[in-house]
Specification:
Elements: E1 5-8, H1 28-43, H2 56-62, E2 69-73, H3 79-86, E3 90-95, H4 98-110, E4 115-119, E5 132-138, H5 145-154, E6 155-166, H6 168-173, H7 185-193, E7 196-207, E8 214-224
Parallel strand pairs: 1-4, 2-3, 2-5, 3-4, 5-6
Antiparallel strand pairs: 6-8, 7-8
Helix pairs in contact: 1-4
Length: 225
């Protein structure tokens, strides 16, 4: 069994932003706040409710794919990374919540699985070029054209993107007015990026992985042409 590995990408704290050619907007204070928040929610807050099993859309799509190289963005405590590893995928997970990543690696070791993990904000992570057969962007927020460009470059031709997140109507229901993806925004940004074929897209009410309540969700599956 391969050795588990964690890579600490702390260079974003010291290198000037001018060195990045494709960097999303970075707010170091906000990133640190998110790190603290998600470490607490995913590892210590027993009242926080979330699906500890793999995302249902991911399971559905991955079941029809040949295991290869997978990138799990916002891996958290590792539910999706561990599922993919069990199915024979070579998985790299990325998350800023270092305690949650440590939990994922512990689970991998206990289950004799191999996953790589990178502790870094998504804004500075190097997606590589034609490296991934599957990119999982599940409950990692909406994305802008910079993130989509990085995903497209990182995917191999024929590689699959799986996306799921809250719709803006869910955010309004939560009284978080700027939270969630606006109607058709995810579909539109994928179409405008070019180089993708959308296999499925929906904006429907379903049980959210985080909160475990019925909310309107945005789901997309696309392949790189």
């Amino acid at each position: 069994m391969k050795c588990r590995k964690v890579i600490l990408h702390l260079f974003f704290l010291i290198l000037p932003l001018a060195l990045y050619s494709q960097v999303e907007k970075i707010d170091s204070a906000e990133i640190e706040s998110e790190r603290i928040r998600w470490n607490k929610s995913l590892t210590r807050d027993t009242a926080y409710k979330f699906n500890k099993e793999a995302n249902a859309l991911l399971v559905e799509i991955a079941s029809g794919l040949k295991p290869a190289m997978a990138l799990d963005l916002g891996m958290g405590q590792g539910r999706n990374s561990l599922y993919l590893a069990k199915k024979g995928w070579n998985v790299t997970g990325v998350d800023i919540a270092d305690e949650a990543v440590a939990y994922a690696l512990k689970q991998a070791k206990e289950n004799k699985l191999s996953i790589d993990a990178v502790v870094a904000p998504m804004e500075t992570f190097d997606f590589g070029t034609s490296k991934w057969d599957l990119v999982v962007h599940v409950y990692e927020g909406c994305f802008d054209d910079v993130r989509v460009k990085k995903i497209k470059e990182g995917l191999k031709p024929g590689g699959t993107l799986v996306f799921e997140f809250f719709h803006r109507e869910a955010g309004i229901e939560m009284k978080r007015l700027n939270f969630g993806c606006e109607t058709n925004s995810i579909k539109k940004i994928i179409e405008e990026a070019g180089g993708f074929k959308i296999l499925s897209y929906s904006e429907e009410v379903g049980i959210a992985d985080y909160g475990l309540k019925n909310y309107k969700l945005v789901k997309l599956v696309a392949i790189k042409k």
